Amino acid sequence: MKGRKTVPSDDSRLLLKGAFILTIAATITKILSAVYRVPFQNIVGDIGFYIYQQVYPIYGIAIALATYGFPVIISKMVADAEAKEELDSHHIVQASFIVLGILGLFFFSIVFFGSTLISTWMGDPNLAPLIKVVAFSFLLMPFISTIRGYFQGKGEMLPTAVSQVQEQFIRVTLILLISFILVKQGASLYEVGSNAILSSVIGSLTALLVLFIFYLRNKRKKITSLKFKGVYKVVAKKLLIQGLAVCISGALLVLFQFVDALNIFTLLIKSGVEIERAMELKGVFDRGQPLIQLGTVVATSFSLTLVPVLTSNRRKDSQYAIAEKVNISIKFSIIVGLGATVGMICIMEPTNTMLFSNNEGSDVLKVFAISVLFSSMILTMIGILQGFGYLLAPAKYIIIGVFCKFIGNYVLVQKLGTMGASISTILALMVILGLCIYKFKCIGIKLLSGLFYMKIFICAFLMAIILRAWTSFFELFHLTTRAWSIVDALGGVCVGGALYLFMIGTFNLLNERELNNIPFGKFLLRMRFK
After folding, report:
1. Per-residue pLDDT tens for 197-230?
2. 333-342 pLDDT, tens per residue?
């Protein structure tokens, strides 16, 4: 009926509020996770950073299991149990905990008792003690996952959000504080790395304590023993298939880091690089991780808030409304991802010097920066596919991409060094993106028009010209010290960003409704009309 407005239901409002809370928490934790690595590298140097980054991906996988996949699947089972009243939600939690407890012990055993073998694969037996420490993260995973899933299933997102932020804050604070003290005391870099990993485990433990307090306050009745044995089979099937699939989809960047940890160092050694120099080169390559993570967070955090809307409303909304939500998600990821990619490439030298004291490896990091655009698009498209109920396909695509990355490293690193690792990352991401685009076409999701891509590339090209002129001024007068690099890099962000936003408004890349649904959209809308 014309002029009639649809009033959101209480359930829809609750869903949107919960999605917003989780998005804010995820954004804060990812920013903290990226930013702390800069001062950490300044404290321990490239070799110390190499040591930490070799083991960190294992911890990242444990966090992915406890944050992305399992809580989501548990929350769906709890919500269904509450709605149908066929089974007490506490029984779902109990069954989930037992299943995940077995899985956690399995992962712990592989990592802890296989630490020597894993460190040998990495080419550095001295990493074995660090790997043993990080193995304990898998023992905490069942507790964290089940409690988070229980609350999310009841529509209470605050416990998950608080525990995520608390975990990251404690972890980052301890890593920086303890590392600074140990380096000042002359401790070995492996000892510093071991304590940094231990700090991460302590962060997970504090998250568990926060969740346990919430759970005790929420519990209203005694949990009886689970007599319905058939529920174990149902829970195990959903967790081990759907849960692991969502975990894999959420751990794209971490899995790529794990591949790099396994073979970059050993391949550099095989190519004739000395051991200490190979450590430095791997540490320099890892400088790109916080930069890529920050760019990806900005590009995906806001667009993915629309995914829960797709999940809940795809049966109620018209095809046009759904297509519009999909388009704005993809548009935003491309606009921010391309802007961040081109911007980082243009100001990589001063940014590298500003953050890490020198510009070593800038060419490698420039190529690596292209992954911001591809990973932003991939993560957004994966979120959309999950919103449409496709959980397994994205996981398959990422597994294929990880395999391509593994093979790409073996082919390219021995010939091109860390530049080969950057190139293999881009090629593997292109494979995943191609598969996602193919899936979109198969299920009838229309992609953006060619005119949009032409306009956005013009915007990025003009920004690149201005940024190149900006950095050339500093190079011309040899203003390349770390102090001047701060002015160069931050000034470039402001100048390039302002021009990029102006061009987006000028080319009308986002319509009025889309602008009202994105950060700073109203500002762009006013600028466009002016």
Report:
1. 999 999 999 999 999 998 888 765 555 555 555 6
2. 899 899 999 9
Give the pLDDT score at 304.
56
Judged by DSSP in three states, 497 sits in helix
For tokens 């899995």, what's the residue?
255
Return the axis-axis angle of helices 189-218 and 158-184, rounded to nearest 10°. 160
Q: Is 269 exposed, middle or buried (0-12, 13-18, 19+ CB in 10 A)?
A: middle
304/207 same-domain check: no
Q: Is the pLDDT of residue 65 over 70?
A: yes
- 192 phi and psi angles, rounded to 5 deg: -60, -45
Q: Indicate whether 212 and 275 sit together in one domain.
A: no
194: in domain:
yes
**Whether the Cβ atoms of residue 283 and residue 269 lie closer than 8 Å to each other:** no
Asked which of 250, 281, 313 is the last residue of a domain, the reply is 250
The 3-state DSSP class for residue 347 equals coil
| Cβ partners under 8 Å of residue 459, min gap 6 | 339, 500, 503, 504, 507, 509
CA distance 164 to 244: 20
Total domains in the chain come to 2
CA distances from 330 to 159, 355, 446, 447 (A): 30, 31, 11, 9
Question: Last residue of some domain: 250, 283, 298?
Answer: 250
**CA pair distance 159, 157, nearest whole angstrom:** 6
Is 332 among the domain residues?
yes
> Hey, is 141 helix, strand or coil?
helix
- Distance of alpha carbon 74 from the chain centroid: 21
Name the nearest CA neighbour of 268 among 283, 253, 246: 283
Give the C-alpha separation, 88 to 82, whole Å. 7
pLDDT at 80 over 70: yes
Which residues span the domain enclosing 89?
A: 16-250
Q: Which residues of 196-209 are buried (b: 16+ CB within 10 A; e: fewer)?
A: bbbbbbbbbbbbbe
pLDDT in tens, 367-387: 999 999 999 999 999 988 888
Residue 369 contacts residue 375 (beta carbons within 8 Å): no
Q: Structure pTM?
A: 0.90
